[in-house]
């Protein structure tokens, strides 16, 4: 049996996934994405888990799709095997929040994987980019779609057309990442954020994620209606009663995640 490419651990109610292909800077293959999807689906189904953190190493979150594997492939090869495709869609369907803790390189498919997460916490040494143009291709897993939504057209065009990298400060300025912290803090910072999320009522966490994702993926009126209906729906939960009672009684809520 081959060694796992993704390390799977837990920290309290947080599922921690670590890409583990150090020799190739965590380059992404079908096998990596399959393992990641299986692990995330298991956490998604596990009542003991409330949120997840996805990380890599200090040198690389992931340096992109595996170029050595791809270099000889034809259109028929990538299309027929749906390279990275099938389980990439499975990652998108994960319902619990996933935070990307990014240190080092997040390039090509690595940047796209980070953007697929719900938000990114970056280390000061993080470098983001879509360098596919330098390989004679273009981003294939959301780079041309999620990057402009995150950083605007001008910067997305700049990055996608020149293939240059941006550092953590530029990524934070342009809205790609939510926080920048020293490299030795990045994993703890992400686990702490995930722990806070995992302490909230699970139904409201799931709905909040769904609603913010709608904002990103749909028109304003459709998103507003979706948000309103989900807000109303949460009044059917015990946790709404508990959360609001706890506030008025000046105590901490004891959420039961139902
Ligand atoms: N695929 C396969 N192997 C990779 C890789 C990748 N994406 N990125 C790095 N590696 C390998 C290198 O070949 C090298 O292996 P060897 O030791 O056997 O030579 C090892 O990882 C270490 O890399 P470097 O020696 O290059 O390390 P560096 O510190 O000098 O440079 C880097 C780091 C700038 C990230 C450089 O490795 C690099 O430019 N990598 C490629 C980045 C890239 O083009 N990514 C896009 C891929 S295409 C894609 O992702 C399409 C998509 O949309 C899904």
TrEMBL record:
It catalyses: a 4-saturated-(3S)-3-hydroxyacyl-CoA = a (3E)-enoyl-CoA + H2O; a (3S)-3-hydroxyacyl-CoA = a (2E)-enoyl-CoA + H2O. It is an enzyme of class 4 (lyase). PROSITE patterns: ENOYL_COA_HYDRATASE. Keywords: Fatty acid metabolism, Lipid metabolism, Lyase. InterPro entries: ClpP/crotonase-like_dom_sf, Enoyl-CoA_hyd/isom_CS, Enoyl-CoA_hydra/iso, Enoyl-CoA_hydra_C. GO terms for molecular function: 3-hydroxyacyl-CoA dehydratase activity. Pfam families: ECH_1 (PF00378). GO terms for biological process: fatty acid beta-oxidation. It comes from the Bacteria. Signal peptide: none annotated. The keyword Repressor does not apply. Its EC number is 4.2.1.17. Could possibly oxidize fatty acids using specific components. NCBIfam families: PRK05862.1. Belongs to the enoyl-CoA hydratase/isomerase family. This is enoyl-CoA hydratase. It comes from Candidimonas nitroreducens.
